[in-house]
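Structural prep section.
Before we set up the soaks we want a predicted structure of the protein with zinc ion in place, mainly to decide which crystallisation condition to try first. Input record follows.
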Amino acid sequence: MGRTAPFGGRGDRVPGLPGRGGRLIGTRTAWTTVCDGEFFCPGCGGDRNYQRRTGRRRFVFLGVPLLSRGETGPVVECAACQDHFGLDALDHPTTVRLSTMLRDAVHTVVLAVLTTGGSAARAALDAAVTTLRGAGFDDCTEERLGALIDALAADTGRLNDPDCAPGLAIELHEALGPLAPHLAPAGREALLLQGARIALADGPYTPAERDVLATAGCALTIDPDDVARLLVAATRTPR
Ligand SMILES: [Zn+2]
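Run finished without errors. Recording the tokens verbatim:
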């Protein structure tokens, strides 16, 4: 996390203003804002506005900028704590974005399991509704979920079609891949277990359900041995 400390302190960050506090010799950085947005500030720990800025460093003598010391940055400046960070700070999703990604991931895993190997049994549908509500889909009902699965089947011929597997794998990787690096191992395993419990709700795993869960585990960057261990563990633990 590349914090940058401007030479002259906070007063010197304001472009176009002379240095404050009587710093007569040193380097002053004049910052220019390139763009702004929202990020998760690793300094003050929350979703904050940021400005992406580049700076021009100048050698200052008797308060007068003389020699150019070249460009510096770009940096990300937090609007709240005003600390500077490297651009890699923008790689981390905001907490709002992370919770949306997590919700979408649960939805994708649930649908992937439900649409595998035939129409969803009532028990599986029940389990799926509970899981989706727990993930924040408050208005999810069995009727709506059933209708969605029927629509998916009619639309794509996904049910009972072995050729649909690559498409399903792509969906799982798209929904889970970007999320995986930001989850702790326990969080990734919990997502897989949610899918496993829905698969188990209407009886033992079918080969297609195992395939889908293995794909989900792979997308979540869980080791295949751990996926196998978790799938067995799910058969032993009650919901
Ligand atoms: Zn901050």
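Observations: Residues 10-91 form one domain.
Flagged for discussion at group meeting.
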